[in-house]
Amino acid sequence: MKRSPPPVTASTVNWARSQPPLLRFLHTCYANFLAEAGGAVADYIPELGKADPAHFGISLATLDGHVYEVGDTRVPFTIQSMSKPFVFALALDTLGAERVESVIGVEPSGDPFNSIRLNADNHPFNAMVNAGAIACSGLLHAGKGDGAFDYIRHALGRFAGRELDVDEAVYASESATGDRNRAIGYLLRTNSVITENVPAVLDVYFRQCAILVTARDTAVMAATLANRGINPLTGEQVVTPYAIARTLSVMTSSGMYDYAGEWIYRVGIPAKSGVGGGILAALPARLGLGSYSPKLDKHGNSVRGIKVCEALSAHYDLHMLNRSDDARHSIIADYNIGKNPSRRVRRPQEQEILAKHFQEVRVIELVGTLSLSNVDYVSRRLAGSPRPEFVIFDLRRVTATTRAGARLVAEAFQELAELGVTVILSGIKRTSREWTTISEWTNRLGNIRDFYLLDTAIEWAEDQIVYRYGGSIDFLETTELSEQPLLAGLSEAEIADLAALCTVNTYQPNEKIITAGSEATSLFFLRSGVVHVTLPDGIRLATLTAGMAFGEMALLEPTRSADVVADMSATTYEVTIQDFERFREQHPRAGERIMRNLAQILAERLIVANAKVDLLTSG
């Protein structure tokens, strides 16, 4: 019978039309500030005066690459002074901090952006005012010659995630009316800040300010600053974290010119404005905001753009100095292998050793950011318990690692090495950014192992405990049916009758023995080697060694629920379910005993599974 589709209700329609709360808030800002009539369009550069004062766009980019847009977010306008932080970061990376900092200061000036004044060393106060920005362009011109502008334009495009063009009309207008900037240029030349041809340097600067962007572009560019130099859309590391940190510092103190103090006090987000009507704001590790509205206040900042930033910061309490991260939330689980062993099914001798020495393997599962405070808390938590021989740090839920956190991690690992403790990392790939950050400080330490899967890490640590305390793990050992836990309690005669029904099969490494979804027709007893049991999605359920049974759920279910694959050369005893049922009819006592054993095995698995759940849900 064909089922009819569910009825379309008002709730269904509303759900389809619903918007994320942040997008709704941006729409509210747009509606509230659209009627704002204050300010005036910049006209000291004649071409800028042609901008439509009605244009208003708001865009917000998250660090996972999602971009919200409201209003005129695709209307192009010239970047103007918003180019300054990006060119400053580019200069730091291209020429080195020492070279840049030798001629450009980092102190706020307290003056308008186009002030013709230098500091006590006859250098620009900072790179956010025109004098500092022209000096930056001069440094890049000295290093790149005639290719300086294309180098800058390409770099700004990498910040935006697309190629950017130039508004030639604005460039011509700016160049024709740029005498104040020429005065600044020659003042810098007189004081040896610029050593190149001043008109050529100013041409780079005028063109740089005439690059076309949109509100969406500036949001992505701001998010790249907030994301330690990594473009959240393209994934490219555009500039180094060092350059980003220094750039954000200067933006914080000087990005909004003589309004900077008021801005950081009330809004608390590093930002940069441009007389073209744009404002970008970069909240580190959170988001990037870009807005466009050409009417400016007396400081040269977009009136509507200021209001958007103030509203966003106030509504969501985003002031960068108002953080409430709690290091105690960085540990999601802390246990030893007595509470949560690996999925390896161990033989009695191994079980006995691990039961006696379970406290020698400590597992700490981490979440969030490996920051200085979080790593410090983890190290104190670890030191508060008896010293283990192995510590596994599972990082699969770690979203970021700060350099301070990575350095403290290395110092903690160094101390563990001196105490004879082996560190094992899991849940982190060697190709990841977090591995690069951590390994910068830890690659000289010899006490660190890494496995991507936590269960593999626990299994390896268990093996070391077995070896250290007199046990052995012989994967080539051959076992008999009498050693099988599923057949415990059967007499020699019953074992012999069952053996007569079995066939011995050999499997090569990585050969699939059982396929999920296939008909369950046989029961297997592992005679030698190792196999692993996995779900179709790749999650490993168990690792089995000689002396263990698998496929035993065929006694209860007609279809296979998991794959079984040989890890290495393996041999099995295989008995068909049909033959096994005949055996149970001939030996009812043995059949009852086997089902009791199966119930016991399943109960033990359930206990282990419940323990894992408890570890993750016990506050």
Helix and strand layout, with pairings?
Layout (H helix, E strand, L loop, with lengths): L9 H8 L3 H13 L6 E2 L15 E6 L4 E5 L5 E2 L5 H12 L1 H5 L28 H15 L3 H13 L7 H9 L2 H12 L7 H12 L2 E2 L1 H12 L14 H14 L5 H7 L4 E3 L4 E6 L3 E6 L2 E2 L6 H14 L14 E6 L7 E2 L2 H9 L4 E10 L1 H12 L6 E12 L1 H16 L3 E5 L6 H10 L5 E4 L2 H15 L23 H10 L1 E5 L4 E3 L7 E7 L1 E5 L5 E6 L3 E2 L12 E4 L3 E7 H10 L1 H30 L2
Parallel strand pairs: 11-20, 12-13, 13-14, 14-15
Antiparallel strand pairs: 1-9, 2-3, 2-8, 4-5, 6-7, 7-8, 10-12, 16-23, 17-22, 18-21, 18-23, 19-20, 19-22
Helix pairs in contact: 2-13, 3-5, 3-11, 5-6, 5-8, 5-9, 6-9, 7-9, 8-9, 15-16, 16-17, 20-21
List keywords for this structure.
619 residues, alpha+beta, Beta-lactamase, Transcription Regulator spoIIAA, Jelly Rolls, 3 domains, five-stranded antiparallel beta sheet, five-stranded mixed beta sheet, 21 helices, 18% strand, glutaminase activity, STAS_dom, acetylation, EC 3.5.1.2, hydrolase
Structure overview:
The longest helix has 30 residues. 42% of the residues lie in helices and 18% in strands. The model has no long low-confidence stretch (mean pLDDT 89). It is of the alpha+beta class. The two termini are 49 Å apart. Helix 5 crosses helix 9 and helix 6 runs parallel beside helix 9. It has three domains: 296 residues, Beta-lactamase (3-Layer(aba) Sandwich); 114 residues, STAS domain (Transcription Regulator spoIIAA, 2-Layer Sandwich); 138 residues, Jelly Rolls.
